[in-house]
Amino acid sequence: MAQQPTLTDLQLKVLRYMHAFLLANHQLPTNRQMCHDFGWDSPNAAQDICDRMEMAGALERNELGNRMLSASGMARLGVAGNAIGAETLLWRDALRDTPDVDITVMVEISDEDASEPVWPGWWDGEVWRDALGMEVQVVRWAEMPQGCGGARAHRARAEPA
Question: For 1-39, what is each residue's pLDDT tens digit?
């Protein structure tokens, strides 16, 4: 397997920016938007950098000829496959820590026979309950993921660092 060309520091910064912009806006930034956000004099500067990133394999073209992040580009960011909006859940020990009362969280139940041991649930102040309100024995819990709407709702504007 051929080694991928190395991205420059600026190209990697642009790739991170494009990924964050995609998560927040569900589309890649235009050349004009990148020009504005990076303080470049001309959208041609964005075009030149994107062309070089495409040659390096970090970007590719979709069926319509529009720019998109490649699997290789996503891998350079540590994102598996073409996942967009991947989130990491922080699982907490239910014996040592509980969430605020009546807040919906993800719970892992201790039933070894359960075909799906992870469900939405909540701590009612005395016992754990599953999404149906049934009492369950919880091993771990995590805050609910934001999902794709979370990035949009928070308008996590992708400003260059």
Answer: 456 778 999 999 999 999 888 888 888 999 999 999 999
Domain that holds residue 53: 9-86
- Are the CB atoms for 142 and 119 separated by under 8 Å? no
Q: In this structure, how many other beta carbons lie within 10 angstroms of the beta carbon of residue 106?
A: 16
Contact (Cβ atoms closer than 8 angstroms) between residue 61 and residue 85: no
The string of pLDDT tens digits covering residues 36-50 is 999 999 999 999 999
Same domain, 73 and 17: yes
Gap between the Cα atoms of 29 and 132, Å rounded: 42
Q: How far out from the chain centre does Cα 62 lie? A: 21
Phi-psi region of 26 (alpha: psi -120 to 50; beta: other; left: phi over 0): left
